[in-house]
Amino acid sequence: MHQLLQALHQKLAALRQGPEGLVGADKPISYRTKPPASIHRELLGVCSDPYTLAQQLTHVELERLRHIGPEEFVQAFVNKDPLASTKPCFSDKTSNLEAYVKWFNRLCYLVATEICMPAKKKQRAQVIEFFIDVARECFNIGNFNSLMAIISGMNMSPVSRLKKTWAKVRTAKFFILEHQMDPTGNFCNYRTALRGAVHRSLTAHSSREKIVIPFFSLLIKDIYFLNEGCANRLPNGHVNFEKFLELAKQVGEFITWKQVECPFEQDASITHYLYTAPIFSEDGLYLASYESESPENQTEKERWKALRSSILGKT
């Protein structure tokens, strides 16, 4: 009994540490163009190899996935009182799941921050091309969550409006990746790629080939709509076993994917940067974007002026 309690205590302690990795790290900040040098280094100064960064992102993803248990899906999508509300019930019992969603959002903003940070468009174009290569390697590994976060970060308005910067980027590879993650047809292209990764995992000859990290927000959406869209009981009053079998299948696949051991050696300096590097708030991103490439219309000019006044105290 003592050994069981000790093992349980260690397991619970490990689970509690999961979401705490992002405490304080996912709070955006607003600076003019870059944070003080004492707390910020550019990502390319920490890791200049896109393959290495993709591997470290995969390491982070698998580490964070490992903390999410199947019971969190139940807590998130099963109502306490089926007559009281149709909204999912979130609580402290889903903290690991919600922390993983926060990690996705942080990665989006980190990508956008790193692109908007440099003062020269040549450097910004270099960062964009670097992230394109990182995203492509994430796709090859089977890390679709990081892939989607990177694409989302590059598609944020403060980044996409940098036309002079994008003109210097070789965008063919980016458009291919965008096509793979296109939401058209309920993410038809992504689902095809995911099935390919799952098949590779089932027939894998190496630990690297076993990796399947789904686009998590879409997985949550699929499970939510399956739970909400199908009745628990059939018209004759019998339990709708088909629904629960499908729910079990989807959650069961997730459990299999999250238990894969990461084949890549962790680089503590890179993962520390990914967790702790300061990120711009949305207003901070827009201000950095306008400082890099001047506003093109009256609406942008007015927003730039308001941001300079509120963030920098300038008129």
From TrEMBL:
> Listed GO molecular functions?
guanyl-nucleotide exchange factor activity
Keyword Translocase belongs to the record:
no
User: Mind telling me which GO cellular component terms the entry cites?
Assistant: plasma membrane
**What is a single Pfam family found in this protein's UniProt entry?**
RasGEF
Matches recorded under SMART domains: RasGEF
Residue span(s) of domain Ras-GEF: 49-295
Q: Which CDD domains match?
A: RasGEF (cd00155)
Question: Which GO biological-process labels does this protein carry?
Answer: Ras protein signal transduction
Keywords, alphabetical: Guanine-nucleotide releasing factor
Q: Is the Nuclease keyword given for this protein?
A: no
Tell me which InterPro entries the record gives.
Ras-like_GEF (IPR008937), Ras_G-nucl-exch_fac_CS (IPR019804), Ras_GEF_dom_sf (IPR023578), RASGEF_cat_dom (IPR001895), RASGEF_cat_dom_sf (IPR036964)
Highest taxon of the lineage: Eukaryota
SUPFAM superfamilies for this protein: Ras GEF
Which PANTHER family has this protein been placed in?
Answer: GUANINE NUCLEOTIDE EXCHANGE FACTOR, RAS-GEF DOMAIN-CONTAINING FAMILY MEMBER 1C
Q: What is this protein called?
A: Ras-GEF domain-containing protein
